[in-house]
Automatic annotation (TrEMBL):
Organism of derivation: Dioscorea cayennensis subsp. rotundata (White Guinea yam)
Name of the molecule in the record: Exocyst subunit Exo70 family protein
Biased composition (Low complexity): 217-227
Cellular component GO terms, alphabetical: exocyst
Gene it is expressed from: LOC120274061
Signal peptide residue numbers: none
Entry's family note: Belongs to the EXO70 family.
Any single biological process term in GO: protein transport
Function text: Component of the exocyst complex.
Amino acid sequence: MTKKGILNLLSHHHSNDDNDHHDSHHDHHHHHRFLSMLLPRHHHTQDHLDHNHKVHNHDHAVDDDDHQHRHGMKSILSHLHLHLHPHHHRHHHRHHHDDLTTEQSVSATVMEENINVAEPIVLKWDDNTSPYAKITWLFSDDRAEAHQFLRAVAELQAAMLFFVSSEHGGASVSRSHSLARAQTLMQTAMRRLEREFYQILSANRDRLDPESISTQSSNSSVSVASDGGDDADEELRAAGDFISEVENTSALAMTDLRDIADAMISAGYGKECVQIYRVIRKSIVDEGLYRLGFENHAPNQIQKLEWEALDLKIRSWTSVAKVAVKTLFSGERILCDHVFGGSEPIRESCFADVARDAAVQFLGFAESVTRTKRSPEKLFRMLELYDTISDLCSDIATIFSFESTAAVRSQAITSLQKLSETTRSTLNDFESTIQKDASKIPPPGAGIHPLTSSATIYITSLADYEAPLAEILEEGAIQTQTSAFYSDGTVSSPSTASFSSNEGIRSTMAARLARLLLVLICKLDSKAGIYKEGSMTYLFLANNLWFISRKVKESKLGFILGEEWVAQQAATARQHAGNYQRAAWGRTTAVAAAAEGVAGAEEAWEKVRAFNVAFEETMRSQGECVIADAELREEVRASIAGSIVPGYRILYDKCCEAREPAMSVARYYSPDDVWIRVSGLFENLTGLGHGSFKVSPRAR
């Protein structure tokens, strides 16, 4: 029932008072129109009512439910059923006509008395005539009186329902007068309830914040255990009492809002109630997002941001997304469901108006990020965005389950799809960058190439995002994600459900990352040709392959690729190290290896001199060489020393035993000197490269 509809109807009634006997059929028709405004839609007379009475057309959900009574009113209507439908009895029992007329007269008297009782209660809170009503709030002073006020509203509505029937209430003039009086009081009551509704929402902004509401929904009560009387326990009790007081206050406010909403919707004033709610709660949602650090930027503004600024915004978004969805939007849904729990269409449309646009904008941030220029360093943030939204899929599907909030679910899906596409494209770009690397400057000492260090760290870091990356790389992952929003069963996040049981997804990711490493290794093979000496080529490959195998082994990627892959790369690196040793130290090793065949002292002296010359030349040529990894460095040192020191010791000892004055061993390296010199090799760590691929730390 709407105010305009009632006023139009009352005007019609007054005009018909002068023509009551000439237009009885017309009057009867309009009485049925008014009944259609008051009766619940499920009433058994509805098939005979005219539904073309709606005055407001901009919100069908509210229009429909403005004509439904709260549960208490239904019992009143049931009680009045006999009086509302006497014509069924009149057709078959005309001899009871006088008795029915008497009953109608008694009922009309009761209804008049109900109006008389309701009148002072309503007028007391009319701020147009009562100074008291201007400075006092009905629902904050006397709760018993507030409930009395709501009962008065119900009585007025029952009286209006009674008098609007053409079969009841006596003469048309008397009936119209009673109806007009009840309507005037109803309008006054509705104005008061509007003010009270606004006051409760405004005064309890802090207590009805989504965080408090969502917390209360999961914790029905707060208790603080204490078995002592010390200060700490007193503080705990005080804190518990304060929390309980806040929760009780907000729970009371929610109850009052529900009672007022039920009364206003039942009386046909749902639009006024909903409008107040929408304006206030939408501002709270917008303010909540702002306090979380979210600012709604247009996509073109996002594209203009420098990476450092955008990086900060992405990290901020991922850090607050869980709070925004599980607390802000969830709390708002809980409150809306409670306040408008008596009307499914109204609570749906109201929640959509309050939260839909804000949620779409919030989730649309991720899509806006994907429209910026792609670069390798952005990939990790893309994965974090994907992971965050994916984890919240179940909550988004539950909170925004209404058809009117489908845009929110759609935006979440779109963001996931765009993030997925951007991730795959960025990986392809990264692979292409490796293949096209054109640097010609060899690392000093055949050490770690900058491309090796940056690309390997980049690839191994991707393994830290195993769940989102695996979903993205697995064909059909987005379809699985999409079904989570529209399935009739329990909604679950693929990142925690399907992924854990699907080894195929992991193998897909393993193959993709292994391919990136293979591309890198092939590129390093081509770069090894930069060195003119074959020994340096081998050492370069040994260094870089060992670096890759170690980094993979030490990261989560080692678990993904498996021990066999790591062992194979390490074995290849050792093979290159062996080739380096033979190429660089072959001449020195050959002299030392001939020690067993030396017979006399003179030959021994020749071999010692030849060894020292070869050793000195090798030390000069290899003195700047680098082996970056300590383990591999020790292995190569031990292998070199093992191949030359034992043989040289034999030669050196034979020279010492000869004791020829003309020959002094002091002029040559002793075996221990050789060992010490070898032990100092490969320490030049200036050959450690640093590449251009940046890895951003995780935001959470």
